[in-house]
TrEMBL record:
Gene designation: ruvC
UniProt similarity note: Belongs to the RuvC family.
Top EC class of this enzyme: hydrolase
Membrane spanning residue stretches: none
Protein name per Swiss-Prot or TrEMBL: Crossover junction endodeoxyribonuclease RuvC
Catalytic reactions on record: Endonucleolytic cleavage at a junction such as a reciprocal single-stranded crossover between two homologous DNA duplexes (Holliday junction)
Functional description taken from the UniProt entry: The RuvA-RuvB-RuvC complex processes Holliday junction (HJ) DNA during genetic recombination and DNA repair. Endonuclease that resolves HJ intermediates. Cleaves cruciform DNA by making single-stranded nicks across the HJ at symmetrical positions within the homologous arms, yielding a 5'-phosphate and a 3'-hydroxyl group; requires a central core of homology in the junction. The consensus cleavage sequence is 5'-(A/T)TT(C/G)-3'. Cleavage occurs on the 3'-side of the TT dinucleotide at the point of strand exchange.
Subunit structure: Homodimer which binds Holliday junction (HJ) DNA. The HJ becomes 2-fold symmetrical on binding to RuvC with unstacked arms; it has a different conformation from HJ DNA in complex with RuvA. In the full resolvosome a probable DNA-RuvA(4)-RuvB(12)-RuvC(2) complex forms which resolves the HJ.
InterPro entries: RNaseH-like_sf, RNaseH_sf, X-over_junc_endoDNase_Mg_BS, X-over_junc_endoDNase_RuvC
Species annotation: Nakamurella flava
Cofactor field: Mg(2+)
Key words, A-Z: Cytoplasm, DNA damage, DNA recombination, DNA repair, DNA-binding, Endonuclease, Hydrolase, Magnesium, Metal-binding, Nuclease
PANTHER family according to UniProt: CROSSOVER JUNCTION ENDODEOXYRIBONUCLEASE RUVC (PTHR30194:SF3)
Length: 177
C-alpha cells in the first residue's frame, strides 16, 4: 500500500510518501515541502498547494491520502490557512477517487512513538529509525508528513477490520428483526 501523508499548511505543506504492508518494512518513497510565499494572495497560494499536490498524486499514485486533522490553536489565521490547505488536498484526492483519512496529531505521535504527547524531536528520531534513514528529513513538516503516512499505514488494517465487523453486526441485527 502506498500512502501520501500531508501535514497541511499554507507557508509549508509537508508531504511524505511511504510504501508498506503486512509483513513488509515501511519504505520512504519521497518527502518534501510545498512552499508558498506568505505575502502572496491566499487564492494563489491555495492554487499552488493544489497544483503541486496534484502533480505528486499523479506521479506517485498513492492508494490513500492521510491528512492531519486541524486542531484548535490560538492563532485563528494559522488555523484557517491550515484548514484551507487541507481542504484543497482532500479535493485533489477526491478528484482522483483516492480515499482520504484524517488523523489527529496525538494519534500520529502515539502511532510512531508510543506517546501521544511526543515532541517533534522524538517523532523525528522514530521516523528516522522506522524508515531506516541516515538522518531525519528536513524540514520538520516533511517528517510530520511521513509520520502521518506511517500512522495510516499501520492503523488502516485495524480500522478496516473494525468497519467490516460493524457492517457484519448491523447485517446480523437486520436479519434478526
Amino acid at each position: 500500500m502506498r500512502v501520501l501523508g500531508v501535514d497541511p499548511g499554507l507557508t509549508r505543506c509537508g508531504i511524505g510518501i511511504v510504501d508498506g504492508g503486512a509483513g513488509q518494512a515501511p519504505r520512504m518513497v519521497a518527502a518534501g515541502v510545498v512552499r508558498t510565499p506568505a505575502d502572496a494572495d491566499i487564492a494563489l497560494r491555495l492554487l499552488q498547494v493544489a497544483e503541486e499536490v496534484e502533480a505528486l498524486m499523479d506521479r506517485y499514485r498513492p492508494d490513500t491520502v492521510a491528512v492531519e486533522r486541524v486542531f484548535s490553536q490560538h492563532n485563528v489565521r494559522t488555523v484557517m490557512g491550515t484548514a484551507q490547505a487541507a481542504g484543497v488536498v482532500a479535493l485533489a484526492a477526491a478528484r482522483r477517487t483516492i480515499p482520504v483519512a484524517w488523523h489527529t496529531p496525538s494519534e500520529v505521535k502515539a502511532a510512531v512513538s508510543g506517546n501521544g504527547d511526543a515532541d517533534k524531536a522524538q517523532v523525528a528520531t522514530m521516523i528516522t529509525r522506522l524508515l531506516r534513514l541516515s538522518a531525519p528529513p528536513k524540514p520538520v513538516d516533511a517528517t510530520d508528513a511521513l509520520a502521518l503516512a506511517l500512522c495510516h499505514l499501520w492503523r488502516s488494517p485495524l480500522q478496516n477490520k473494525l468497519a467490516e465487523q460493524t457492517r457484519l453486526a448491523r447485517g446480523i441485527r437486520m436479519v434478526a428483526r
